[in-house]
Design goal:
heterodimer, A: eight-stranded mixed beta sheet, B: Urease, subunit C, domain 1, TIM Barrel, eight-stranded mixed beta sheet, six-stranded mixed beta sheet, globular
Chain lengths: ~1050, ~425
């Protein structure tokens, strides 16, 4: 296969060849200008006489766009050296000035690229510990300074200048704390001259980049590491530097007053970064990936300025219906809505700058910008986002971004308005240095010529388009055949050769010459096959056909102007445009599973109001419940149906972004699932459809001391913060057995490797935590004067979480299987004075039921899983029944997105295996987990005053036939089986509409990409890394 | 009719230390199960029905009042439900004991195109998992090799056997092909990956390799006595001459279409799609080409983010409406220990539009027909094997599934298992 394709390619020109030729031309033109304008670095020796004169340059009669909102017609700009001296309609032209007439041309401020790696070499591979006193983890590289690394990259700089950029803020995009960025002028001088602001920014991300350290391996680990580093920096400044030296902490302290740029990978990460900023009293400039519109209100509420990409998603190739099946509706909608991102941010009052980062071809920025303008962005805002906004974000407003006296002579000369489809950048001036981008007069060489070769006259025809001309020659008589000629045109210089045998030569004839008179006359010297020279000329007889501008621009423009769909929350088939409101409603005549002393009540009404259960009873008098309201309370006829409290999944991994395990260390109590909640995970909706209203999102089980849990309600459509259960107590995941001793992963040497070692990890961690708490308490008890005189103890996020366990304010959910390890942890807990709240899985719990009962531990188990590894060989489905009988509070959990939506069925299995009473079985997925999570004062039963987390089932809820008809969370109907049908029709229509639009766009010449399918993999306890 | 009616009670095997309960001896006394609701498996039911069998063969199915013959033993199943033994297709029972203990794993051979490897050989009759599956009513299974492009040859067994000779119901009936996945899997749906061009190229190669192999196999099958015996090609012979069915594991519409057309073109006599998530989308083709489907586990998540959460549950209805014959599988994670949940897959199908008897049919008669054993198994009919079980309640619902008697070929099999024994041990420890 490979070979065949290569062979097929041989005949065709390589696509990058022409491009390379063009780039070379640009560079050589730029070089030509340098000699005139070269300014030496002031303190460096010069080889030869110094260039001392700074001849003023006057650009006159131009349309001068001094700022995004102000334009001067027929105005003049006076430049000297690298600065603008004067701008206006009546500028006095000084003597000895070089005057350039720009009649009919536009003059713009040079564009500013705010987010670039230009000229910053990659971090060298680090296999060993890096030299110097640095932070222990190499993802924190705050002592990196772009100004010290900047190495001019003329090729890339020329690409940027070709689009009008004169300034870039560059950084090394590697690591979580990336150090400082610097602002550089794209003037092609030495770094000392071109670095115009050495400390322009400090830069951050959630990606550890090239750091060879194992930690962090997950998003939550990255967040924890960044938070810890920021706390360490505070400690370092407060005296920690007396205890150890750390260039990165020092650098962090030095750079936090700079503009802080955070590279966020999408709207969720933008909000995550903003939360860190809030914690530390910082403000991040959030670099997004173009989807901020999907959570716009939340993002704008952070007050963060944004950097948004000029790159837009390509359409998918959806001609094949099987391919189209695999494109997610969210991707279709994103393709349609991404161009409106900028306009929506602007309309919402947000501040943003554009970046070319992410564009495959820098030149695409203009077509994309025009698409954005068609989606509602006004041109002044667009221009500002390329000039004044990035300039002011990095405190460069007195350097660049406008055309004004005193600023750098950063200018762009164009033929038209910047956003005009016909516009051409003619020249870019960076810090007063002129770079010719497109020679102003481009001779059009096309047409039919009489080619006079002295000995003979031939016909020459030139066709094609700029950069891709082709030529052929024939004898004058019309019936003779054309012979291909190879033509190269660089500027006004043309070279041409063809096989001369047909025309009386013995071999190739080669010509070189110059094009004059707008292409009509060419002349020069040629060489015959025998080596003799001759003068030649060509005179145009007929103008060439200008190849028609492809209609695609117009056709595409009309597609881009078509109306777009709305933003859905979230962007998938089950998203809504409007997040539902809390309802006041009365369910009539249901079988109500109260989970309270009243048990299961037939023919009972339940009224909910303001997110709470208001009343439960037969034939409720609603008028009496709302004496002051005249509005009729809506009723839901629940005759024949069962109303229960919502299912609570005590052990779940749904709705978690980029990693459930930070398993790179034995103890990672500092990481928090709450930092990485993914509110858009479709599994949240699947769970709602299965009657689930609350889940504990747990860290995985790869290490003995895992991360902190997150308790959420399934408020589908809201953002991560909107899912949180605000007053929920803190929880943390522990784990024992095969997973933590890495039995089933080859080649690990992480301690522990045995259950013996696991025990010692706990002793070690809690001894450290005890000391930590004591140290903190001691310091807090000091008099202010004494505090000031001593180095404060370092705030340690890991030990802080463990100290909370000792203090009883954080509860443990411990992954466990065999009886020995359960007893071990109980013993450790007893001897160190803490409580194990819940043993989860606990498949051999039945062997130690009495000990669990005695320690008041909750048990959260699977209904019938076993035999998937050695430590579950003795697991039995009767576990829940035995534990229940022995008086342990038992929950049935899922640990699995699929099972998580059928927990009612899993609970029903305890009836089959062990004969649990149906009501008790039901409590195992509702009230019991509420108790285990310390939420039973709010959840778990259908009683007045409790949260209106309710499920209406069409059958006995433990039956395989039961379907959740409606699921309410806090009195809000987040799932309604009947409405889903309407929603399905809406989603189907939306999909069809956008697919039709994509097909039309492809027809009209839009770029398309191949469809790829994303695997529906799910997180489990033992999933490692940022992807399952 | 002799009145030796036995009460149904839970029988605990005496030998607690044994790995698994002893397989039952051949049927001695003739047995009549009477009084319950008899679910025939083909859609019919008899309230107050009866099933009689002797020497392992059913000789009566119908209403209790119509029983004429005399049976040695009469089982009173009043208020209970009587079903044909459930059939688990595409299973790995007995091929792996504990997933993460490699030494117990015999499910996937190395290589690529390995039709010659036979599940019959490696099937472990003494697996501790099998009795737990049996005690929920699953009495027959198609043991299927995993992995590879062609994973091997499957084998149908009954689940109560002393040894492999004893277990086999139908040896070597199916060749299993894992059809090349139509899409390069990059990333997962919560987070996108990049385009994996390499994988796309590989797919073309995989298809070519498969095609070339089938062409060779077909040519080889054209000669009854080949000059040089080739194990791989020999094992493929039955696909072209009849006697073996091709089981193509495929889920996406494109894969299913490709696979079915490929099999047709290669002259494969009989094709069954395994998985079949999208089978309903290409139903016309399947109907036209007489292709049956072993459906994916219904208790699974939608395969695409935008699919209806209920879609997996509704797949049986979608196929029924389109006239496709299908049965239900339990392939996937935890497929061995979870296989005891097979009846509840049917329960879900029943709840999502199929109805209880059609749902039962999808794990009995139609499963037998698709596996080619319906002449002996799959429904309660005179002349067929007496492979059936009695549940006190609806066996398709976990709430009521409670198997109290089960027979394989008329043998009264033990319903004991290791888990029940551990349960009893600890009940005793806690003084129950």
């Amino acid at each position: 296969m490979q070979k065949i394709r290569n062979a097929a390619n041989k005949g065709r020109p390589r696509p990058d060849t022409l491009h390379a030729v063009r780039t070379r031309t640009l560079i050589s033109l730029a070089l030509a200008c340098w000699a005139v304008l070269a300014q030496a670095q002031r303190n460096a020796p010069v080889n030869g006489p110094h260039h001392r004169a700074e001849v003023p340059v006057v650009l006159t009669h131009a349309t001068v766009h001094v700022s995004p909102t102000e334009t001067l017609n027929d105005a003049t700009v006076l430049i000297q050296g690298e600065r603008i001296l004067e701008v206006g309609k009546r500028v006095r032209i000084p003597a000895g000035a070089e005057v350039r007439d720009l009649t009919g041309k536009h003059l713009w401020p040079g564009l500013v690229e705010p987010f670039s790696e230009l000229g910053i070499p990659a971090r060298p591979k680090q296999e060993q510990a890096s030299a110097g006193a640095h932070f222990w983890n190499r993802a924190i590289a705050a002592a990196t300074h772009a100004a010290e690394l900047y190495t001019p990259d003329e090729k890339r700089a020329a690409e940027l200048r070709a689009q009008g950029f004169t300034t870039a803020v560059v950084q090394r995009m590697d690591g979580i704390a990336r150090g400082t960025g610097c602002a550089v002028s794209l003037a092609g001088r030495t770094p000392a001259q071109d670095v115009i602001l050495p400390r322009a920014s400090a830069n951050f991300s959630f990606r550890k980049g090239s750091s060879p350290d194992a930690y962090p391996s997950s998003l939550m680990g990255s967040i924890a590491l960044l938070r810890q580093a920021l706390y360490d920096a505070r400690w370092y400044a407060a005296g920690g530097h007396k205890e150890q030296s750390d260039a990165d902490l020092q650098a962090l302290n030095d750079q936090l007053a700079l503009p802080l740029v955070f590279e966020a990978n999408g709207h969720q990460d933008m909000l995550r970064a903003a939360r860190i900023a809030q914690e530390f009293g910082l403000r991040f400039i959030l670099k997004g990936n173009g989807d901020a519109y999907q959570r716009l209100a939340d993002i704008l509420a952070t007050g963060s300025p944004l950097i948004i990409p000029l790159a837009l998603p390509d359409a998918y190739d959806v001609e094949d219906p099987f391919d189209a099946l695999e494109v997610k509706l969210g991707e279709l909608k994103h393709w349609e809505l991404a161009p409106s991102n900028a306009a929506r941010i602007a309309a919402g009052g947000g501040t943003f700058a554009f970046t070319t980062n992410g564009l495959k071809e820098t030149a695409e920025l203009w077509t994309n910008l025009r698409r954005m303008v068609r989606s509602g962005l006004d041109t002044a805002t667009a221009i500002a986002a390329l000039t004044t906004v990035p300039a002011s974000l990095f405190h460069l407003e007195n350097e660049t971004g406008r055309i004004a006296a005193g600023l750098r002579a950063d200018l762009v000369i164009t033929t038209n308005h910047l956003l005009d489809a016909d516009n051409k950048v003619l020249e870019t001036w960076a810090s007063g240095r002129r770079f010719i981008v497109n020679p102003e007069v481009t001779e059009d060489p096309r047409g039919t010529f009489d080619l006079n070769l002295k000995s003979t006259v031939l016909k020459l025809r030139v066709e094609g388009k700029a950069g891709d001309y082709h030529a052929k020659v024939r004898k004058p008589s019309a019936d003779t055949t054309w012979v291909k000629a190879v033509i190269t045109i660089e500027g006004p210089v043309v070279s041409l050769w063809f096989e001369g045998k047909k025309f009386g030569f013995d071999g190739p004839v080669r010509l070189n010459g110059v094009i004059h008179d707008r292409g009509a006359i060419w002349d020069g010297q040629g060489q015959r096959p025998d080596g003799t020279w001759f003068a030649w000329s060509a005179i145009r007889q007929k103008n060439g056909q200008r190849p028609k501008e492809p209609k695609q621009t117009a056709a595409l423009d009309s597609i881009w102007s078509l109306p777009s769909g709305e933003v859905w929350y979230p962007m998938n088939a089950f998203g809504t445009t409007q997040i539902p409101d809390t309802e006041t409603v009365v369910f009539r005549n249901a079988t109500v599973w109260t989970n309270g002393p009243q048990g299961i009540l037939p023919n009972t009404d339940v009224c909910i109001d303001k997110g709470r259960i208001l009343a439960v009873g037969p034939k409720l008098d609603v008028a009496a419940l709302f004496p002051r309201s005249k509005v009729k309370v809506p009723e839901i006829d629940a005759t024949g149906m069962h109303l229960t409290s919502g299912i609570i999944d005590e052990h779940s991994h749904i709705g978690i972004a980029r990693g459930v395990n930070e398993g790179t260390q034995a103890a990672t109590a500092e990481v928090r699932i709450g930092d990485v909640v993914n509110p858009d995970d479709i599994n949240l909706h699947n769970a709602l459809a299965g009657g689930v209203t609350t889940v504990q999102q747990l860290h995985g089980s790869a290490n003995p001391i895992g991360g902190q849990s997150s308790l959420i309600k399934l408020r589908w459509g809201r953002d991560a913060a909107g899912l949180r259960i605000n007053d929920a107590p803190g929880f943390i995941k522990f784990a024992l057995g095969e997973n933590v001793k890495r039995s089933n992963w080859g080649g690990s040497d992480r301690f522990p490797q045995t259950r013996m070692g696991v025990e010692q990890v706990f002793y070690d961690a809690f001894h450290r935590a005890k000391d930590y708490a004591a140290e903190q308490a001691h310091h807090a008890a000091l008099k202010p004067r004494e505090q000031a005189a001593s180095v404060p103890p370092r705030r340690d996020l890991e030990l802080e979480a463990l100290a909370e366990i000792l203090a009883g304010t954080r509860h443990i959910t411990c992954h466990s299987y065999v009886q020995s390890e359960i007893l071990m942890l109980l013993h450790v807990a007893d001897s160190l004075g803490f409580q194990v709240n819940t043993f989860t899985h606990v498949l051999e719990g039945y062997k130690v039921a009495r000990e669990l009962k005695a320690h008041r531990c909750n048990a959260s188990t699977f209904s019938d899983w076993w035999a998937y590894k050695f430590e579950v060989n003795d697991a039995i489905p009767y576990n829940a029944a035995i534990l229940q009988e022995q008086g342990v509070n038992v929950c049935i959990n899922s640990d699995d997105a699929e099972m998580g939506r059928r927990l009612n069925q899993e609970a029903a299995k305890t009836i089959k295996y062990g004969g649990v009473k149906p009501e008790d079985a039901w409590k195992m997925v509702t009230l019991n987990p509420a108790k285990a999570l310390h939420l039973d004062h709010r959840m778990g039963s259908v009683e007045p005053g409790k949260d209106a987390d309710l499920v209406l089932w069409d059958d006995h809820p433990l039956s395989i036939r039961a379907k959740a008809m409606m699921t309410f969370v806090d009195g809000t109907r987040y799932y309604d089986r009947r409405r889903e049908l309407d929603q399905d029709a809406v989603a189907t229509a939306e999909r069809a509409r956008i697919i039709a639009k994509m097909l039309a766009a492809k027809q009209a010449g839009a770029k398309v990409r191949k469809v790829e399918r994303q695997e529906p993999r799910q997180w489990h306890c033992d999933t490692m890394g940022e992807r399952p | 009719m002799r009145n030796a009616t036995l009460p149904i009670a839970f029988l605990l095997a005496a030998a607690v230390a044994a790995q698994r309960p002893s397989p039952a001896p051949p049927q001695g006394r003739s047995i009549l199960v009477k009084g319950g609701t008899v679910h025939v498996g083909d859609g019919k039911t008899y309230d107050d029905g009866a099933v009689g069998f002797r020497n392992g063969i059913i000789d009566f199915v119908g209403y209790e009042y119509a029983v004429k013959a005399v049976y040695d033993t009469v089982i009173d199943a009043k208020g209970m439900q009587v079903y044909p033994g459930l059939i688990l297709p595409d299973a790995t029972l007995g091929l792996v004991e504990i997933d993460l203990v490699r030494a117990t794993n015999d499910e996937a051979e190395t290589g690529g195109l390995e039709p010659e490897v036979r599940a019959c050989t490696a099937y472990n009759t003494d697996s501790k998992i099998t009795p737990t599956v049996r005690s929920n009513g699953v009495l027959l299974a198609q043991i299927t090799p995993r992995g590879n492009r062609i994973s091997g040859t499957s084998c149908i067994v009954q689940l109560d056997a002393w040894d492999n000779n004893d277990a086999v119901v139908k040896a070597d009936g199916g060749i299993h092909v894992n059809w090349p996945r139509a899409f390069a899997q990059t990333g997962w749906w919560a987070e996108q990956g990049g385009t994996d061009k390499v994988a796309a190229d590989q797919r073309t190669e995989q298809l070519q390799e498969l095609r070339a192999f089938f062409q060779r196999a077909k040519a080889y099958a054209g000669k009854t006595v080949p000059e040089k015996a080739d194990l791989r090609l020999e094992s493929m012979r039955g696909l072209f001459t009849g006697g073996k069915a091709l089981f193509v594991h495929a889920d996406a519409a494109r894969e299913i279409q490709e696979a079915v057309l490929f099999a047709r073109e290669m002259g494969v006599q009989r094709t069954v799609v395994v998985g079949g998530h999208d089978a309903w989308r290409v139903a016309d083709l399947l109907r036209d080409k007489n292709v049956d489907v072993i459906l994916q586990r219904l208790h699974s998540l939608p395969q695409r983010e935008d699919e209806d959460p209920d879609l997996p549950y509704r797949l049986p209805l979608l196929l029924k409406e389109r006239g496709i014959r299908f049965c239900l599988g339990y392939t996937g994670d935890m497929e061995r220990m979870g296989a005891r949940n097979l009846p509840f897959q049917a329960g879900t199908a029943s709840a999502y539009g199929l109805g209880p008897e059609d749902a039962l049919r999808a794990i009995t008669l139609d499963a037998a027909a698709i596996l080619g054993i319906d002449n002996r198994y799959g429904s309660l009919a005179p002349g067929k094997s007496a492979t059936l079980f009695i549940s006190t309640g609806d066996a398709l619902d976990m709430r009521t599934n409670n198997v109290v008697r089960a027979y394989i070929d008329g043998r009264t099999i033990s319903l004991d298992n290791r888990q029940k024994r551990l349960w009893k041990q600890y009940e005793e420890r806690y003084g129950k």
